[in-house]
Amino acid sequence: MPIVQVEMLKGRTLEQKRALAQKVTEAIVETANCPKEAVKIIIREMDFENFSQAGVLKCDE
Amino acid sequence: MPIVQVEMLKGRTLEQKRALAQKVTEAIVETANCPKEAVKIIIREMDFENFSQAGVLKCDE
Amino acid sequence: MPIVQVEMLKGRTLEQKRALAQKVTEAIVETANCPKEAVKIIIREMDFENFSQAGVLKCDE
Amino acid sequence: MPIVQVEMLKGRTLEQKRALAQKVTEAIVETANCPKEAVKIIIREMDFENFSQAGVLKCDE
Amino acid sequence: MPIVQVEMLKGRTLEQKRALAQKVTEAIVETANCPKEAVKIIIREMDFENFSQAGVLKCDE
Amino acid sequence: MPIVQVEMLKGRTLEQKRALAQKVTEAIVETANCPKEAVKIIIREMDFENFSQAGVLKCDE
């Protein structure tokens, strides 16, 4: 039943997301001891003007 | 003051969202015992390449 | 596949949560057109010192 | 290490987001006692048909 | 209507949370151009065994 | 910069969380192409009365 949310900047390819979904699911199954079918992953992509670190937007870095 | 977030795949019509907002609000008011005005709902829609179950992206199913 | 998160102040009884889970699930099924089994609800309860409105913590109101 | 998520309706300019990132970061640093570099802010913008209050979508108000 | 979630490690005092709620609200009002009453803040506190950076739990650092 | 949130039922040991943090971080680094230091993981544990599937609380299953 683990629900995983991955928040990251835009720009990953479909191929990368596909690999991410597979590998993160495996990591959860292996360590949290749950069936593969129970793992759900939500990927959220952020625009560069919607993330800041140390008070500076990513698009301004 | 309940804040409700509904995460679902893209594809619902405005009419469905309208009904969802109304019915979920009623369900919260009735069971959590709070005024209607206090219930806020955020709907988040996911692309089919941004959700995976059992390690497989929705767009690959 | 809708995943619902309900954020609310502490204090609801188990009976209220039970009703909330049932009614909100029904509302989602009816309006988002998905099977009952697909609806997951996470309830998050907040302490009164962890929520503020208009800049004032709930515990100070 | 504070991670801040700001959920708001669409329509703010880049200039407003820039100011928000800076001022909210300062507010966190000052009150939570942490280094500026540790503060991350995610801005999430909602469409008017994806937010409801009192059971009514923003786009219908 | 901005809803702000602040995720941070446990250990802040009530006084710090009070100041945080006030200052962050002011920062949002000033930059996002909205009434004070509309700003809601949820503070979420994490245990040191529930946060990791670079693959290492905070409690193991 | 990926921020990962893992929502799961209570009951995992510290050892399991430690392994989860490590393995999930590795999975993200490998597939999203980012430095290890950039990956942050938040683990959220739910009580059995705060999660429902198909309208039934976990504690009632």
TrEMBL record, chains A, B, C, D, E, F:
MF (Gene Ontology): isomerase activity
> Which NCBIfam families does the entry mention?
PRK02220.1, taut
Pfam families, A to Z: Tautomerase (PF01361)
InterPro entries with a match to the protein in the record: 4-OT (IPR018191), 4-OT-like_dom (IPR004370), Tautomerase/MIF_sf (IPR014347)
The entry's protein name is: Tautomerase
Tell me where on the tree of life, at the top rank, the source sits: Bacteria
Tell me the active site.
Answer: P2
Q: State the similarity comment.
A: Belongs to the 4-oxalocrotonate tautomerase family.
Domain 4-oxalocrotonate tautomerase-like intervals: 2-58
Gene3D superfamilies, per the entry: Macrophage Migration Inhibitory Factor
Task: Write the Enzyme Commission number(s) for this entry.
Answer: 5.3.2.-
Q: Which UniProt keywords apply?
A: Isomerase
Question: Per the database entry, which stretches of residues form a coiled coil?
Answer: none
What is the top EC class of this enzyme, as a single word? isomerase
